Amino acid sequence: MTGLLFKELRQHRLILLAAVLIPVFVVFFPLLSLTAGLNTYEHPLIEAAKQLSETGGLITRLFMTFVGMILLAVLTSTIFSADESKKWAYFTASHPKGYRGQLYMKYAVLFMVFGLYFVSLYYMDSLLQMLVFHVTGKDMLPFSEIYMLLFFLQLFLNAWNIPFMIRFGVKNSAFARVIAILVLAFLVLVYLLFGPLPGGMNGYINLTFGFVEKLMKGELTGIISVIIAAFPLAAVGLYLLSYRISCKLFMKGAADYVK
Amino acid sequence: MSNKKLCAKRLVIFLLLAFGLAWIPWIIMNKVCGYEEWFSTNHYALFAIPTLYAPALANLLTRWITKEGFSDMKLHLRLKGNLKYYLAAWLTVPVISVLGTVVFNCVYGHWDLAEVAERLTFEKGLAAVLYVLGIGPLVAFNTFGEEFGWRAYMNQKMEPLLGTAGTVIVGGILWGIWHAPLTVEGHNFGKDYPGYPYVGFLLMMLFCTAFGAFLMWLTRRTDSVYPAAIAHAVNNSGGGMLGTILLLNGVGDAETFRPDFAGSIVMDIPLFLAGALALFLLLRKNNVSPTDSE
User: Fold this and answer.
1) What is the pTM of this model?
2) Do A126 and B130 touch (CB under 8 A)?
3) Range of the domain at A76
4) B91-105 pLDDT per residue, tens
5) Which among B42, B123, B138 has CB closest to A151?
6) How many domains does chain A have?
7) Which residues from A are below 8 Å from B when comparing CB atoms?
């Protein structure tokens, strides 16, 4: 098993490195982006740091968090596509640990990537908070709760996605994913155009940011708090279940791989 | 140099580094910035975060300085056959915490259980339990720094010198003393108690000895540092206070509630029993870790 782990780590060392470095970009880019077009007496970075602790900064940080998540999703898909060939799949099946061992290590490395990404985000955010405090004297809302949820969200999404990648190949599953996202986007658009919004678009935005703020401060109550609290356990459970399903589907998928 | 002398030399270097790398920045930051400012906020994160990893850094530096090499670091997960220990690491602390609160209430009757039952909604109770169990293991990256030093290195070097029981007791006392710059600032028990801060030091040493025995047992059985890091993380992220949080519905005096010295001892009775059980299991003759027997 150590050999398989070493193979995965060596093969995906750049992804592991990216998981540590992307958060630097994700966390500090909002600070740099907010300096654009600023024309003030103060240094643009000081003004940008001030804006970071306001609503505009919050939106930019949320947007960049989303961008980071997309970047990581694109990178991690190569963990599975790298070994997607018929020859390799049959060789893997003949290995003493079999394809189960290979899949186990792929799941473990993916988990490691998400873990590294989370830890890096967590510490970078702490450093940004320190910087903003010393420049402006104001406290910025910490994103640690959001990053924690993001970690489990990535596990949750991959738990669904990986069995499809194993059975139908990375390309086909990506195609299916794009269709699913388009359908979802279409439904959201229809709702935003015709559905009942709480007090118009502004009310909707206020409601969303109110929710995000409560989430970050840990002030959610009622059934929502139970769902949010149960989500990490559900995501980990699904991830483990996903491994079992992938093991069952591997050989069927391998038969469809190109040579 | 004999094996024992070499162990003693490495142990002394490790302790000097583990204490020095943590205490020097802590004491400076306590004096310059104030404990609340540097510890409870992220205003000095750049200086505060590395101190969490002081024992881990001490482990690596000692191995490097004494040319010991980097084998037997206990960094393998060793999940196979050890899932029950991982489960124990995950669930024991919250269970002990709830039991501790029950014992405390039986002795002191601090909380009116009828009032608690009225206030404790199923949703809030369930959310608290799920949150602690879900998030606890994730923050193990914060406690890994300590466990990689104390359990994965100090215990290994101390056991040939002091034996298993001696390692649990002396190791626990040293671990408790290591927290002293934080305890003196009220991190563990506040400042408003008779005999401050010496009683706090004593209580911390007792707590660390009992909890350390459990963590040592986990590390020994799995030959991996991760179960101990998980148990420590669950304790730090609310698991150690789950009983109080549950009883008080996450509000009321849950955050400010500080039992006195005798109350703390009573509340920790289940932990002391768990520590004693762990020590008993460690001392059993057939206590060989799965990897040792291979």
Assistant:
1) 0.88
2) no
3) 2-254
4) 999 999 999 988 988
5) B138
6) 1
7) 115, 118-119, 123, 126-127, 129-130, 133-134, 139, 142, 148, 151-152, 221-223, 225-226, 228-233, 236
